[in-house]
Design brief:
It is built from 13 helices and seven strands. It is mainly alpha-helical. The strands form three sheets. Strands 1-2-3 form a three-stranded antiparallel β-sheet. Helix 2 crosses helix 3, helix 11 packs antiparallel against helix 12 and helix 12 runs antiparallel to helix 13. The radius of gyration is 26 Å and the shape is elongated.
Length: about 350
């Protein structure tokens, strides 16, 4: 099972610094329950099970240990939370778990506070996210209408290859380059389509729509980056030294707006972090790519006759590509050098 997980995580570019296993934390959780029982925070029922009464806090009674002494999810989460904070001295612990568990985490924080761990229990944050639905409707495991992650990744890469071929995006690429780009675009489409939505909202995932090269999608942003990198390569091949500082060029209103947008990147990242919302970074990357495409459609860069203006536009384009790459990297999305 773990080997299977590793394959999927590797494909998605996900890795872990440390893994906590329930087998390593449930005994610690049980000891915390025993401690709470001894202090009168919890109570034992006639069948031997241990509970906490949270009715005074507007909640209900919560089971912590079964009558036979076996643990429940809450027991394990108590032990895991304790170990994480004690071992790592965290400023904050963010649990990324679906919205069906809102009540669970409300109870977890409250129990830890009653146990006297309020110094760090207040720094537990449940990043509650909505469900992802398909065009056919909600995924239901009992009915078999679920999507296997590996199958979804393979389908996205296949669709990316198919659409890229149709649009001529892979013309001139070797088979190896085409495979790498298809993988990058397919995964970029999948990640961006999900991350561009506020995490709290339930969303509809349409694989075909997510790979549209013209909408608010990962491939649109990736293609903008590849387009800019192509322009810069052509400039270098032509021997244009555009990075050497020369006299100041007069700026068009669109160029001023692009520069302003570039200066807003650090604040955008801070806002995304403060609100636990990757979608803020996604929206920024899309708007920057869209603005550049509009600008490039109306104004020549390489064919600009004024050397000073041409070099300024090349430097501006280079900074736009760099910022797009940084923003997409924060979302775990790679951007290709060519498409």
């Amino acid at each position: 099972v773990y080997e299977g997980f590793d394959v999927t995580y590797k494909a998605l570019g996900v890795d872990f610094d440390k893994v906590y296993y329930e087998s390593q934390t449930y005994l610690l959780g049980k000891s915390l329950v025993e401690e709470g029982l001894a202090r009168g925070i919890f109570f034992r029922k006639e069948d031997g099970s241990v509970w906490i009464d949270l009715t005074a806090d507007g909640l209900d009674q919560k089971l912590l240990l079964r009558g036979d002494g076996t643990s429940v999810y809450m027991t394990q989460d108590l032990g895991t939370a304790f170990r994480r904070f004690e071992e790592n001295r965290l400023d904050e612990m963010i649990y990324v778990v679906g919205n069906e568990q809102n009540y669970h985490f409300q109870v977890l924080k409250l129990i830890l506070k009653k146990l006297g761990y309020d110094e760090w229990s207040d720094h537990i944050y449940h990043l509650s996210y909505g469900m992802v639905e398909l065009p056919e409707g909600k995924m239901k495991s009992r009915e078999g209408t679920v999507v296997d992650a590996d199958d979804l990744i393979a389908d996205m890469v296949s669709t990316a290859r198919e659409m890229s071929d149709e649009l001529g995006k892979l013309d001139g690429c070797t088979a190896q380059e085409a495979d790498a780009i298809a993988s990058m675009v397919g995964l970029g489409a999948l990640k961006y389509f999900i991350l561009k939505v506020d995490p709290k909202k339930t969303m509809l995932f349409d694989p075909r729509e997510s790979i549209d090269f013209n909408g608010n999608t990962g491939p649109f942003i990736q293609y903008t980056h590849a387009r800019i990198r192509s322009i810069l390569r052509k400039a270098e091949e032509a021997g244009i030294d555009f990075r050497t500082q020369d006299e100041a060029a007069a700026l068009l209103p669109e160029e001023i707006e692009l520069i302003k947008a570039l200066t807003e990147y650090p604040a955008t990242v801070q806002a995304a972090a403060a609100n636990f919302a990757p979608s803020i970074v996604g929206a920024y990357a899309y708007e920057l790519a869209k603005s550049f495409n509009g600008y490039y459609h109306d104004h020549s860069i390489l064919k600009e006759e004024c050397t000073t203006t041409r070099n300024m536009r090349l430097r501006l384009a280079e900074q736009v590509a760099r910022t797009i790459r940084l923003a997409m990297t924060l979302l775990g999305i790679d951007v290709p050098e060519r498409m």
